[in-house]
Structures are given as structure tokens and as C-alpha cells.
Specification:
It is a single chain. Helices cover about 50% and strands about 5% of the residues. It has a single domain, classed as Rossmann fold (3-Layer(aba) Sandwich), CATH 3.40.50. The N and C termini lie far apart (about 40 Å). The protein contains eleven helices and four strands, in the order αβαβαβααβαααααα. It has a four-stranded parallel sheet with strand order 3-2-1-4, sandwiched between helices. Helix 1 crosses helix 2, helix 2 packs across helix 7 and helix 4 crosses helix 5. With about 250 residues, it is α/β, with parallel strands linked by helices.
Amino acid sequence: MKEFDAGKVRKEIVEWIREWFAESGPKATAVIGISGGKDSTIVAALLVEALGKDRVFGVMMPQGVQPDIDDSKKVVEALGIRHATISVGAAVDALLDAVKAGGVEPSRDAGINTPPRMRMATLYAVAASLPEGGRVANTCNLSEDWIGYSTKYGDAAGDFSPISDLTVQEVRAVGDTFTELPRELVHKAPSDGLCGMTDEDRFGFTYATLDRYIREGICEDEEIKKKIDRMHAMNLHKLRVIPKFEQN
């Protein structure tokens, strides 16, 4: 397998972003949710390089108290981008209360997936409200997409996706080429921020193991291999366009 050239890939992504905006919104601003995690941090940096800081708008979207909100603030300050803080807690609670009032008891899954969907709705509301128009960035990576670790129509949505062809290890390597980014954010352990566990703790395997399996087809633990294959198969629907009937 050829060696990953992070500097080269960084340049290619930046050029791809420029070309996409030239066709899809020559004057539009890139709107991105800033969580303080590695993916949104690195994508924001790529957007600034491609479009300039004045054409990037970061949105911090806490749901109640967000313990690592200072990490989000570090990102917007380091990049010097326009930003807003919009709490989604009340909107999430109102929707779930409305579902309950309609006679349907919200499930645990509804409680988990509604916040990211509300965040995506918020990003689109911001994009639609900018005078110059906005385009919403997807910040998912290949590793998470592979095993379905995203919310359909939540963080899995967006208008364009700069890093969805990169594994976690590759995303971090690209992030390391940005000297202006805090290194602790580029290498921050991924977590959903809900259960107090890292993603790897929840999966039962590391991203390094997953990434090697994706790129090289090698997984030395047969049980982990089966688990990855099972997660991949079960969640392919998240990556596909909505199935539709087509006339013969």
C-alpha cells in the first residue's frame, strides 16, 4: 500500500473545495458546526485555507452544559473565523415533548439521534440566513462512515464532504500539517460527548485496527473482523441515496 502523503492530500482537498464552491456557490460562505473535536477542527482549517477566513462561519451548538466548549472556542479563535453560539437544548426538549404529547413515548434512540439532527437543522437555518448564502460542511470521516457511527440526516448530512474519503489516522495526519491548530485538538480522543466513554471504548476496538482493515483488509482478531463487517453491513443505508421505485 502506498504511503499516505498528508501534505499532498491537504493541497488536493483545498483545491477540491475551491472548485466545488466555484460551481456551487462562488460567493457563498461555508457553514460548519464546531464541536471541538478533531474532524470539525481540521475541516474548518481546510475551509479557511481554501476560501479565506471571511467565508467560513463556525457554529457552536451546546445542548445544556458542554464540558469541552472551550475547545470549540479555541478553534474559532485560532482560525479567526466568524462564529455564533446557538443552544439546541430547548429545541430538542420541545420536539421530544411534542412527540410524547402526540401519544408516542420517545425511545432511547430518539433521545440520542434527535440532538445531532437538530444541530444539522440549525446549520441549515444559519446557512439560509446569511446574506451571501451558505453551504453546510459535512465533517464525517471514512472510518466512522464505514461502521455507521453517525446519525442519518444529522451529522451525516451536509452539502459537501471534504474528509469522508480519509480514515481517522489520515485525518489526523492532515491536521498535523496545520501548525496553527492546537495539537491536543487534532489528536483529541473521539467521543460522542454523551456516555462518558471514548468511541474506541464503545466499539471494543481501536481506530487503528479499523483503519488497517479498511485500507489493507487485515484484521488479526477474527471476532473484531466479524463485528466490523456486521456494523458495516447494517449501516450501509446511511451512505446511500434514499431507495426509490423506478419504472421499467
